[in-house]
Structures are given as C-alpha cells and as structure tokens.
Amino acid sequence: GVAGVVKPQSACFERYGSAGYAVLERVVAHAKRLGFVVILDAKRGDIGSSAEHYAAGARSMGADWITVSPYMGPSTIEPFMDAGLGVFALCRTSNPDSDRLQTLDTGGVIMAERTADMIAEMGAAHTGGSGLSVLGAVVGATKSAEDGARLRARMPDQILLVPGVGAQGGTAAEVVPLVRPGQHSPGTAGVVVNASRSVLYPKRAPGQSWQGAVRQAADQFAGSLRILGA
C-alpha cells in the first residue's frame, strides 16, 4: 500500500552463488504475488546470444523490467525488449565519477545526451497506449536540474528510473525536471524514483520492529514525492 515497485539488486544475491540466486528467484516470485512491478537491477551489457541468455533468465524469473548498460550499442538492449521485458538503459547515473565519461563533449553534445538520443530513437518503435516506451533510462537525481531537463527533452516518452534520492543526497525537488511536462498521474508522469539505503536501513524507535521502521521510512519517502503532483 506504500510502494508499487521493488528493485532487487542482483549482485547482492549473486555473490552467494546458486544459493543466492535461488533466494533472488523467491524474492521476485513473492513480490509478484503481492502485486509489485519488479525491476531486476542487473545492469547487463553484452551483445548477441549472451544478451539473449540474460534476457531469457530475467524473463523466466518473473522480472518485469531490467537495467542494462548501453555502452556496446543497440544490440545490448534489443534482446531484452524482444523477450518482453521493459528496459532501463543507463544514461546519466548518480555516482559522482560517472562525469568522467558521461559528460564528455562529443561535438557540442555530451555523451549522456548522445545516449539519450539513441534510447529515444530505439524506444519510439516500442511505445504503448499510455504514450510511454518500454525502453526507459536511468537518470540520477544527484545531477544538475539543467542536465535533467535537457535529457527529459531528448527522451519525452521514456520512463526514467531515478536513483540518488535519499542516502546519496538527492531530493524530491531535483526530480521535478524529470517529470514529463504536463503529466502528473503515476501512470503518465514517466518517473520511477528509487530509494534503497534510506528505506532499507532506517533508524528505529525504541521497541519498533525493523519491518515497522522500513514501512514508516517508505511511507515518508512516498510522501516526500507528492511535490511531483503524482
């Protein structure tokens, strides 16, 4: 009743080998039974048959969306869409050292903007009745509002997965430029705002269960996003 989407980080499970992967499958299955949309945060980034295998694995697990690295081009993305998954391609990520590559000037246009153009072009052929594409992008809230506004203008029909709010220092106000202009409903605003550590590891009041503390933190986080009008 508080969140509509969960995003398990595959690496946190994969480090434990087959036992960890089995737990990841259980987490995804349980989330699906509860009605959540599941984004598998796996950041895959290979091409051809390798990408097809990754896509088949995510699909059979029950994930709805997956994160991918587009560095090797469209062939790293297409197999996931062909498998029926929604895709969030890394574009302008929240980690500070992402600037080293993502802000490189490529003839008056930074690399992140070139990536955004590729995502928008590819996604145009995969747009549903809502007007949103099944190919979205990861755009962090820790970057400048100007960055966000430029990327949104280049990707008008993409859902943006927005990390960086909370423990990384981003605020809900910094998400505003990422919302699709004139759209404010959860189904059309085009943003999925992610919180991890700030919700998973909150301070607990005396006698409060950890489950209660997580729920309270999630509820407060959701409340902070009302500035978006969604």
Any overview of this molecule?
It is globular and about 60 Å long. It is built from nine helices and seven strands; from the N terminus they run βααβαβαβααβαββαα. It has helices at residues 10-14, 17-33, 48-61, 78-82, 99-102, 111-123, 145-154, 197-200, 210-224, and strands at residues 5-6, 37-44, 65-68, 86-92, 135-139, 160-162, 191-193. The mean pLDDT is 92. A seven-stranded parallel sheet has the order 1-2-3-4-5-6-7. The relative contact order is 0.10.
Can you give me a brief rundown of this structure?
This protein is an alpha/beta fold and 230 residues long.
Q: Largest beta sheet: what is the strand line-up?
A: 1-2-3-4-5-6-7
**Number of strand elements:** 7
Oligomeric state of the chains present here: single chain
What is the count of helical runs?
A: 9
Q: Any key phrases for this structure?
A:
230 residues, seven-stranded parallel β-sheet, alpha/beta
